[in-house]
Amino acid sequence: MASSEPKFTPPLEYKILYSKRKTIELRFENANLLLIKAPKNTSPNRIADILLNKKDWIRKTQQKLSQRWPVPKMVTGEKILLLGEWRELEISPAGNKKISLSASGKIVISEDLAMQGAQALIPFYRQITRHWVHHFADLYSQKWQLTYKSIRVNGAKTRWGSCGARNTLNFSWRLAMTPLLSIEYVVAHELAHIKHHNHSPSFWQFLGQIMPHYKPGQAWLKENGNKLPQL
Ligand SMILES: [Zn+2]
After folding, report:
1. Is 222 exposed, middle or buried (0-12, 13-18, 19+ CB in 10 A)?
2. Which residues have CB under 8 Å from 173's CB, separation 6+?
3. Phi/psi of residue 104, each to 5°?
4. For the domain 124-227, what is the CATH code?
């Protein structure tokens, strides 16, 4: 993240949930709400102590969460992240449960589908991810004789992709929000694991050989990966 970016930390609300549990757990529901799960009969002083002890973690976590791009509203004019660019959303009155790209690059979604909220974007993101992942996997596996068993697109939140022991490849549909160069990087990275099932220097050297321009795609994910709207 650029240091010139404004940092705004919203006010924090607390909610204490008492239950039969034995330990106290702190969990952010969102950037503005911290849930405190506590055993019955925990004294307010004990909770205040914990909050004081954890204040650095609370501040850091809240800052991180408030940098996330918000989940888009399904209204005309809203900006939707697609392949690393913000595209305009248009709601069409058609009742055909369809979502598509217009010639001018807008994301057009039918009214009945838009009613489902931002979740309606997931099958669309999945389809785009599947298309580009197959495109790059074909390209790299043919050129470098890296044979994979299968490709699956899943909903992983913390991993862009993975390569199983038997060369089964998995990719998150969240990749559709990232630039093509980042998708290409993730695919090349997972295919490179077919030769090196680790992150040793030889792995990175091999990746640099098959995709010499991998760094910008990797850097985008490092900088923006944890800001993607959490659909
Ligand atoms: Zn890896």
Report:
1. exposed
2. 122, 125, 126, 129, 153, 154, 155
3. -85, 5
4. 3.30.2010.10
Would the pTM of this model clear 0.90, i.e. be above it? Answer: no
Block residue for tokens 């924090």: 12
* CA 75 – ligand 1 centroid, Å: 38
Please give the distance, rounded to the nearest whole angstrom, from the Cα atom of residue 162 to the centre of ligand 1.
7
State the distance from the centre of ligand 1 to the C-alpha of 159, rounded, in angstroms: 10
Residue pLDDT tens, the chain, 231 long: 333 344 445 578 899 999 999 999 999 888 888 999 999 999 999 999 999 999 999 988 888 888 889 899 999 999 999 999 999 999 999 878 899 999 999 999 999 999 999 999 999 999 999 999 999 999 999 999 999 999 999 999 889 999 988 999 999 999 999 999 999 999 999 999 999 999 999 999 999 999 999 999 999 999 999 899 988
Give the start-to-end residue ranges of the domains of the chain.
13-66, 79-120, 124-227
Instruction: Measure 200 CA to ligand 1 centroid, in angstroms.
Output: 10
